[in-house]
Specification:
CATH class of the largest domain: Mainly Alpha
CATH architecture of the largest domain: Orthogonal Bundle
Radius of gyration: 21 Å
Strand order of the largest sheet: 1-2
CATH topology of the largest domain: ABC transporter involved in vitamin B12 uptake, BtuC
Order of helices and strands: HHHHEEHHHHHHHHHH
Structural class: mainly alpha
Largest sheet: 2 strands, antiparallel
Length: 358
């Protein structure tokens, strides 16, 4: 009985759980530290002490309060919510599609959103661009129309995929192949609109595709703060179903899992979250693809730990990337999607190589 503890739980299993819980605790701590650092750094440096005093609603200078509460804090919260949401969706899609390349954009959602934004620019003038004070471009006037159009096209693409899956059977192959086809159609539609767009409209279309968490204000963050946690809570509630599906559809059905329903509902909810994030912030790639694979190397494939670990990594990665993007160029703010793409591709290749060596 020396290898058993109270309640007849093996000591080895307790150590197994402890290691994963320690990693999750480290993830929470790292995200909080990064949040304080992100709010402190910028063109106007604010000390960590003053940042903490502002966050705790203590007396500080009006300038610090305005910079932190109106500019940097919304941007940091947007990065946390978007990073956690994209990573959580990536974990779920990789499971229900049984495809290691599953991500929020595997099924053409980014192409659908880009088409919706381009269509809004062409028809209603949504998101017309003008020269910014820093020599760049600024998005203003009817940006809500652009976001709604992008959201609607994302949902439309998801409905088409789910409809075909219900007709042909909700197998991973059908959903992936349908998503590829839908994505190609929307990409072609976007190129068609860009061909006939004016210079200003074309600039607006291209600029919109640059994912940037700085676009979100408190109203948009409030929307994400509802959609993302609710969706992640649903995914967490179905963690045992996803574990069963990872073992194969036949095994999952033998355990009583309604595989088709779990797959369709999961895809629908993932599409809604993806549509919300992309329509508000633009296209931010690789976070939903890389973070689940990074988390697997630390906590394994059990969704009880994989989902929260991936969300924490996604939040920390996007928050750190956005902070670095703001500080890299002194006269310009680099969109965070550019940095995540540069970082995500090499990291993903490295993970693949390490995996094959194992």
């Amino acid at each position: 009985m020396s290898h058993l503890d109270r309640g007849n739980v093996p000591v080895e299993y307790r150590a197994y759980l402890s290691n994963k819980l320690i990693f999750l605790l480290m993830g929470v701590t790292s995200t909080i530290v990064l949040l304080v650092v992100a709010v402190s750094l910028g063109p106007v440096r604010i000390s960590v002490v003053e940042t903490c005093r502002t966050l705790m609603a203590m007396d500080v200078s009006q300038q610090a309060r305005t910079i932190i509460l109106q500019i940097r804090l919304p941007q940091a919260f947007a990065a946390i919510l978007a990073g956690a949401g994209l990573a959580g969706i990536g974990v779920t899609m990789q499971s229900i599609l049984r495809n290691p390349l599953g991500s929020p954009f595997t099924l053409g959602m980014s192409n659908a959103a880009a088409f919706g934004a381009a269509l809004a620019v062409m028809i209603s003038g949504g998101g017309i661009m003008s020269g910014g004070g820093t020599g760049g471009l600024e998005l203003h006037a009817n940006q809500y129309i652009t976001a709604l159009s992008a959201f609607a096209c994302c949902i439309a693409a998801a409905m088409v995929i789910i409809g075909i899956a219900k007709i042909r059977g909700s197998t991973p192959e059908v959903m992936v192949l349908t998503g590829i086809a839908i994505g190609s159609v929307f990409a072609a539609g976007t190129m068609f609109l860009q061909y006939f767009a004016s210079d200003v409209q074309l600039a607006a279309m291209v600029f919109w595709t640059f994912g940037d968490v700085g676009r979100a204000g408190w109203n948009q963050i409030g929307l994400l703060a509802v959609i993302v946690p609710v969706s992640l809570a649903y995914f967490a509630a179905n963690r045992w179903n996803y574990n069963a599906i990872d073992a194969g559809d036949e095994t999952a059905m033998g355990l009583g899992v309604r595989v088709g329903r779990v797959r369709l509902v999961g895809m629908l909810l993932a599409s809604v979250v993806t549509a919300a994030i992309v329509s508000i912030l633009g296209i931010i790639g690789f976070v939903g693809l890389v973070c689940p694979h990074m988390a697997r190397r630390f906590v394994g494939d059990d969704h009880r730990f994989l989902l929260p670990a991936s969300c924490l990594l996604g939040a920390a990665l996007l928050l750190a990337s956005d902070t670095a993007a703001r500080l890299m160029l002194s006269n310009h703010v680099l969109p965070v999607s550019v940095l995540t793409a540069f970082l995500g591709a090499p990291v993903f290749v490295y993970l693949i190589i390490r995996g094959y060596r194992r």
